[in-house]
Structure to design on (219 residues):
């Protein structure tokens, strides 16, 4: 049923019409640093790759930072709040005093963001084939200050030598961007109005087959 919902301009769990990509840290704030690998630069590289994937799909995208620059957390949230019906994806990498710590995790704050967090975490675990640290609710400023759907992703531990090498590789960065993209698309991008006859036909089908699923504004 997923493709029907997407084609009708609605996806179960949530919808968005644009994406704000937040490459965490930057400028005077390098984020986690280990053996010459700086989180801020990895965040930006993954963000840039995600940007290309979304643009190729025709999704309107805004970056909170396009280069190695510092931006306060609330200003990052303000970028998302200025967009109409935007989903914010904040990209990070992790670090721990426990050098054995490893894996991926995704954070959310508002209940409306949980579905997006689940979708992205699922795709990352499946596609990157690493440890699943789960989806967690946290009151990070970039999440609490963003009015719409917002998630913060931790793509691996730079404090772990094996994961650090993976995270620093171009192959891993491409795969991570693809997994985030896949999660976003599964969760629910509203494509711009195009084939209205097809959308109407699909909505009619959904009304008949799934009367309790289709949102009221689509009935």
């Amino acid at each position: 049923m997923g493709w029907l919902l997407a084609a009708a301009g609605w996806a179960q769990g949530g919808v968005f019409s644009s994406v704000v990509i937040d490459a965490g840290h930057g400028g005077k704030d390098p984020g986690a640093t280990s053996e010459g690998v700086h989180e801020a630069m990895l965040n930006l590289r993954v963000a840039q790759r995600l940007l290309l994937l979304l643009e190729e799909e025709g999704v309107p995208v805004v970056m909170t930072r396009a280069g190695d620059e510092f931006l306060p957390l609330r200003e990052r949230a303000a970028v998302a709040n200025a967009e109409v019906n935007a989903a914010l994806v904040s990209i990070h990498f992790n670090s721990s005093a426990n050098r054995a710590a490893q894996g991926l995790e995704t954070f959310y704050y508002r209940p409306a963001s949980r579905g997006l967090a689940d979708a992205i975490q699922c795709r990352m675990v499946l596609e990157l084939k690493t440890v699943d640290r789960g989806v967690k609710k946290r009151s990070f400023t970039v999440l609490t200050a963003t009015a719409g759907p917002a998630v913060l992703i931790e793509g691996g531990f730079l404090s772990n030598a094996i994961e650090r090498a993976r995270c620093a590789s171009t192959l891993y960065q491409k795969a991570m961007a693809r997994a985030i993209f896949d999660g976003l698309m599964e969760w629910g991008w509203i494509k711009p109005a195009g084939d209205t006859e097809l959308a109407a036909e699909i909505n009619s089908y959904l009304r008949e087959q799934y009367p309790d699923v289709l949102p009221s504004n689509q009935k």
About this structure: DSSP finds eight helices and eight strands in the chain. The chain has two domains: 1-14+198-219, 17-189.
